[in-house]
Amino acid sequence: MHSLYILSAIFLWSSLGIVVRLSGIDVHILIFYSVIVSLIVQGIILSRKNYRKEFPGIKLLKYPLILGVASLMNTFTYFYAFKHTTIANAVLTHYTAPVIVAFLAPLFLKEATTKRIVASIIIASTGLWIMLNGFTFKEGQAIGIISGLISGFTYAAVVIILRIHAKNFNPLVLVFLSNAVIAILLAPFVREFPAKALWSFLVMGIVHSTIAPILYFKGIRFVTANRTAVLGYLEPVIAIIFGIIFLSESPGKGSIIGGLLIIFSGYLTLRVEK
Questions:
Q1: Could you list the pLDDT tens digit for every one of the 274 residues in the chain?
Q2: Nearest to 132 by CA among 90, 99, 76, 75
Q3: Helix, strand, or coil here: 187?
Q4: DSSP for residue 25
Q5: SS (H, E, C) 141-179
Q6: Cα–Cα distance between 181 and 108 in angstroms, integer?
Q7: Which residues neighbour 13 within 8 Å (Cβ) at sequence distance 6 or greater?
Q8: CA angle at residue 223 from 220 to 228, to 5 degrees?
Q9: Cα gap 141→106, rounded to integer Å
Q10: How many other CB atoms sit within 10 Å of the CB of residue 160?
Q11: First CA to last CA distance, the chain
């Protein structure tokens, strides 16, 4: 059941590339205003009395601060990759994160790595390599590919941080505080409000920055970091499908075969939890 929360969040996040590409505005402006929308929505919910006691003490505020910084780095580089390369290239490079998490989890989290989890990671990684077989560094896309790889490293950091500290916070409160940090960090760099992109701010603020993180945080409190990371491999598959539907970016046979392997690895992970 807890894995379903994570899978639901992954499905919603898979549409990010479409929104980023269609918004037509700079990445930092898109992130800032979508976070503002999410803060308004979350603030309304948190104003209810039963949530007020969920806010942490001053000593614990350093963890949402660290998470906010890591999340901003992750989001910015990921969105930048969407802007400067294909949806497939962006999500595939971003999802080097599960492999990084698999190596870091035993060190930072003292989590046991089961044979089934290792097998899932190997299968999913094989799927990614097959998809990357047709990976070409076309002119102008190198910066997008590099950004995708950086987002993979920062996403791994986010997963580790969440796994360590998520149990100490209410999911909605943690999302709110993390978004507040992002808004504060970006505010000095925003000088305009592009009204034409209002729809993208609303979609991202409500769906991607509020609903999806809450579902994800609810799941990650009870699902191991390795398992969470492997489930995350489903996002490239869904994102590529969205790219086909909305942007006419047709993947090759390698993407299809690799995607099937990734889906199978996610199935193995669900079997482990069951």
A1: 678 888 899 999 999 999 999 999 999 999 999 999 999 998 998 888 677 777 877 777 888 899 999 999 999 999 999 998 888 778 877 877 777 777 777 777 777 767 777 787 788 778 777 766 655 555 556 788 788 889 988 988 888 888 787 777 887 888 899 999 999 999 999 999 999 999 999 999 999 988 998 888 788 777 776 677 677 778 888 888 888 888 888 766 766 787 778 777 766 765 655 5
A2: 90
A3: helix
A4: S
A5: CHHHHHHHHHHHHHHHHHHHHHHHHHHHCCHHHHHHHHH
A6: 24
A7: 208, 212, 235
A8: 75
A9: 35
A10: 20
A11: 9
Instruction: Please name the amino acid found at residue 240.
Output: I
Residue with structure tokens 């482990």?
272
Q: Tell me the C-alpha to C-alpha distance, in Å, between residue 64 and each of 6, 229, 272.
A: 20, 21, 30
Count CB neighbours of 143 within 10 A. 13
CA torsion through residues 246, 256, 265, 77, sign: negative
Angle at 4 between CA 73 and CA 8, to 5 degrees: 50
DSSP assignment, residue 170? -
